[in-house]
Amino acid sequence: MRTWALTESLPFARRHGFTPSRELRYSALDLRATPPLPDTPDGVRLPPLAGLDPRRMHTLHVGASSDEPGDAPTDALSYASWRYEVWDNLGLDRAASTAVEVDGELVAFSLVKRDGDRMWSDMTATLPAFRGRGLARLAKLAALHRARAAGVAVAYTSNDEANVPMLAVNERLGYRPVAAQWSCLAELS
Ligand SMILES: CC(C)(COP(=O)(O)OP(=O)(O)OC[C@H]1O[C@@H](n2cnc3c(N)ncnc32)[C@H](O)[C@@H]1OP(=O)(O)O)[C@@H](O)C(=O)NCCC(=O)NCCS
After folding, report:
1. 82 half-sphere exposure, CB direction, 13 A CA radius
2. Is the CB of 65 under 6 A from ligand 1?
3. Tens digits of per-residue pLDDT, 123-162?
4. pLDDT for 82-98, tens place per residue?
5. Which domains does the chain have, with CATH numbers?
6. How far, in Å, is the centroid of ligand 1 from the Cα of 135?
7. CA distances from 73 to 69, 70, 110, 166, 167 (A)
């Protein structure tokens, strides 16, 4: 069983049989401070999700995000589950959520969930073969610009403390830590 606890609540969790496992950092960015969008390199497009075939996005999502650090390997989402949980999610802003296409292939993306003037980055991911080229940063930056243009004021995100590349992307975008939680695990006997 997994639950989440604030750092100051870990003694309580331990007393009830849970073992702290992984630290999660919550960060926020005031979108007035969003860095400028650089010129897009030749052959690279930044389509919003709104115009994309959801089956292509599902293939990208599964291929790019399955090694996200966490307590357990993420199960590959079937198309039906992904459609329900991600694509048809009422909070998903498909006009702001952005993919990266390199020479016609979808290789990276950043999802935006919106609630009024606040947004939550639900997932940013890059196919393993395309990592380390700044494409996650580009996807997230373009998504933040689209969200800001549509009236979003502040962006939130959360990251496993071991996810060094994603923390690096967020720090360079200007996100600052605002809270921390620990996942806590207990074995059911
Ligand atoms: C995290 C992820 C999206 C990064 O994608 P990417 O396209 O390689 O990211 P970028 O190239 O834009 O930027 C990576 C940054 O991490 C830095 N980085 C990468 N590995 C690093 C390491 N081991 N130590 C320190 N910095 C590292 C890079 O230098 C770069 O920062 P810089 O631009 O300041 O130099 C990708 O690894 C991924 O898809 N992981 C699986 C899904 C996931 O965990 N998503 C996040 C969920 S919250």
Report:
1. 18
2. yes
3. 999 999 999 999 999 999 999 999 999 999 999 999 999 9
4. 999 999 999 999 999 99
5. 2-185 (3.40.630.30)
6. 9
7. 8, 7, 20, 17, 20
